[in-house]
Amino acid sequence: MDTIFAEATPPGRGGVSVVRLSGPKARAVLESLAGPVATPRMAALRALRDGEDLIDRALVIWFEEGHSFTGEEVAEMHLHGAPVIANRLAQALLARGLRRAEAGEFSNRAFLNGRMDLAEAEGLADLLSAETEAQRKLAMRATEGELGRKADELRAKLVRAGALIEASIDFADEEVPEEVPAEALDLIEAVRSDIRLMLAGYPATERLRQGYVVAIIGPPNAGKSTLLNRIGQRDIALVSEIAGTTRDILELHTDLRGLPVTFLDTAGLRESSDPVEAMGVARGVQKAAEADLRIHLSVDGLAGEAAKEDDIIVRAKADLGRGAGISISGLTGEGVAELLDLVYDRLRVRAAASGLVGHKRQAEALQRALAALEVEYSTAPEFLAEALRQAAQALAMMVGRVGAEDYLDEIFSSFCIGK
């Protein structure tokens, strides 16, 4: 494979700029710039020279094949964080036959060299895009290989069950203990049960990974935009006494105590002869229906026709007078903290149901495995053994043991350069 390089730190000025090399020429190229570096995984301060030109003085490290992130020879140079230095080093590397890495190419090589499975790679992508503590924890579980270990555990049970069934086929004319097929069926049932539990947690995990959506709905002039501005602590939406000011959907992305939440300010719910406002109302109704949670805001504290059973019903404009139920004032902030407490409590319960499976591709692989196992136990042993093989194949595909080629570009293209 080519030896590749990339700046692993964000471009621009900073304290340090890290340039990473990976491939068969990594050590040789590093030593052509910095001199001999005999001890692997030990940082050394060296002068980087391209011929007589001193590029920089940098910390250099090299990792031998099999002991690096990519599994290849890897070298790192920690430069002073000036773009001109990184650019000058890039010229020297290009002159030595290296090429610039593409997005996600380091991680792609780590996968191809068996340093991570496909589920770990997806977890790494999630970690790089995580914005809240809950997302970070979820991604870390994936990068640590929990899903891969669970898949291997399930496959081991299927292999054991398949071996028992094959034995019953091969030795049908000989004496085989009666408990053998019973053990196989118990193993199949255990795998079925585990897969169902994993799939049951998938919707909650996917929502946590992508972030929750909370829609603020209600009639015009109920204070929806004022509430959004109060939550965001800045002017996001225009506020006016004129009904119908908000026509399109405004979004506020926020970290609610570690949970990723997007609040939506929607157009006031009313009949309108204005076609633009009517489009805004229709779009707001649709987005509210798709949201994970809705805050129904009204001046009388009563639910409108658009309210659903799980809505949070709130009386607005508490600064003008309070009533029964939850009362808030987006203008003064009264009751807003308590409202956010309630939103957090509702979403926290949903987040607690999350599991290991957070990607559609993973869930589809599990569904194929479960479908293969949904066979009658009375079916012929040969067909049952084939069902086990199909299920094991689906589990292997889930973590990229086989058939991963179709997903590589999609997954690694979302990575940054140098990762």
UniProtKB/TrEMBL annotation:
Q: Where does (6S)-5-formyl-5,6,7,8-tetrahydrofolate bind?
A: 20, 76, 115, 419
Pfam families under this entry?
Answer: MMR_HSR1, MnmE_helical, TrmE_N
Annotated TrmE-type G domain residues:
211-348
Known EC number: 3.6.-.-
Q: Key word Iron present in the record?
A: no
GO terms for biological process?
tRNA methylation; tRNA wobble uridine modification
Quote the record's binding site residues for K(+). 221, 240, 242, 245
> Which domain of life does the protein's organism represent?
Bacteria
Q: Which residues constitute the signal peptide according to the record?
A: none
Residues the record lists as binding GTP:
221-226, 240-246, 265-268
The record's section on InterPro entries has: G_TrmE (IPR031168), GTP-bd (IPR006073), GTP-bd_TrmE_N (IPR018948), GTPase_MnmE (IPR004520), MnmE_dom2 (IPR027368), MnmE_helical (IPR025867), P-loop_NTPase (IPR027417), Small_GTP-bd (IPR005225)
Q: Which cofactor does it need?
A: K(+)
**Where found?**
Cytoplasm
This chain's protein is named tRNA modification GTPase MnmE
- Source species, please? Paracoccus pantotrophus
| Gene responsible for this protein | mnmE
